[in-house]
Amino acid sequence: MLHRYILLNYIKVFVLTLTVLFGILYAYTVSEVLFIFKKQTTEVFVKYTLNFISVAFFYTSAFISGISLLTVYRSLTRKKIDLLTQSFGISPLKFSFSILLFSFFISLLNLLGSYEFFPNSHKELYKIEREYRKAKEIESGVVRNLWLKEETSGEVRFYNFGIVETSSGKIYKFYLLKVKAGSISEVITAESGLWQGSSIRLSEAKINNLFTGEESIKELTIEYLPITQIKPLSEKPEHLSLKHVLTMSIVGERAGINQRLYIHETLKRVFTAFLPLFTGIILSWVYIRWRQFNLSAFALLSVFASHWLFLNLIRSLLENTDINILLASLIYAPIPALALKGLYDLGKGFRV
């Protein structure tokens, strides 16, 4: 009965807090569409509002759940229900179990949504803002100045594409540099071509063999990566499904793509998805242990701010240094470590 009472109160406060936030966001989107957007239609307003709210939920659900948790705990501690339950031998972990279970549910929902739903919302939001707010043309499915690498039996090939239209497979300003034993052996250029499947077809390829000095122009087909593995490069990492992000993280190293950006995007989604659970454990520990609202509110702000600070530090290190990815990701360790410490103490209990 106690778990049910706490859970129902928590859900009520959570829904109320969520409604207030969404109300504020709704008012914000209305003002943006009315006063800033170059083009105003009902369809644009509905799409913009729904996508904006879904993206906002993913990034702020931990903060919303934290505020709801503090509100419920404040009410319970004022009635001294937490002390009463501990006097009957009920551990703080059992006391907060229903709230932590709901926090886990939110984290699981975020994790599932981050696979495709939230990235699609982020992508649609970007398109709407660019087309209707900034009145700029959207370039879809195009990769510019693409550099790729391939290593085969002692030879290293560097590919450069001025433009790749991933939908049609058309390529422009093709350049291939072959290197053997540290020396450039051959250069192949072409004004245009077609990339279908794993074949790059060049109707007029200019071939310059630097070892023999021979030059020739002929039709040429080069076998390389399937173009389907390149398509994600035409999108921002935050707009890709988790499947494509993971694919680019794996393929990137082999093809010379900066896969570290995609690894960071994976870490960002996973850590953000589980932030409601981390926050719920830490706040339960702090509030039940010290029974101070101000201290717990400070803990909420600290965890939420630290989350984004750590993620930005990880991205900065991955982009600007050669630091090992695992070492960089350890920057985020204090938050889950603090959550584990809180979980242990909640299970062990505090002196009443």
How does this model look, in words?
The chain folds into two domains: 2-134 and 260-348, no CATH class; 142-229. A six-stranded antiparallel β-sheet has the order 1-2-3-4-5-6, with no helix packed on it. The longest helix is centred in the N-terminal third of the chain and has 37 residues, at 42-78. Helix content is 59%, strand content 19%. The model has no long low-confidence stretch (mean pLDDT 90). It is of the alpha+beta class and 352 residues long. A hairpin with a 2-residue loop joins strand 4 (183-196) and strand 5 (199-209). The protein has helices at 2-35, 42-78, 81-87, 92-95, 97-113, 117-133, 242-255, 260-290, 293-320, 325-329, 334-348; strands spanning 142-152, 155-165, 170-180, 183-196, 199-209, 215-223. It has eleven helices and six strands. It starts with a helix and ends with a helix. The protein is elongated. Helix 1 packs antiparallel against helix 2 (42-78), helix 2 packs antiparallel against helix 5 and helix 8 runs parallel beside helix 11.
Largest sheet features: 6 strands, antiparallel
Poorly predicted tracts of residues: none
Radius of gyration: 27 Å
Q: DSSP helix count?
A: 11
- Tell me the strand order in the biggest sheet: 1-2-3-4-5-6
* Count of distinct strands: 6
Question: What proportion strand?
Answer: 15-25%
Order of helices and strands: HHHHHHEEEEEEHHHHH
Number of domains: 2
The secondary-structure class comes to alpha+beta
Helicity, as a percent range: 55-70%
Mean pLDDT: 90
- Give the terminus-to-terminus CA distance: 22 Å
Query: Which descriptor suits the 3D outline?
Result: elongated
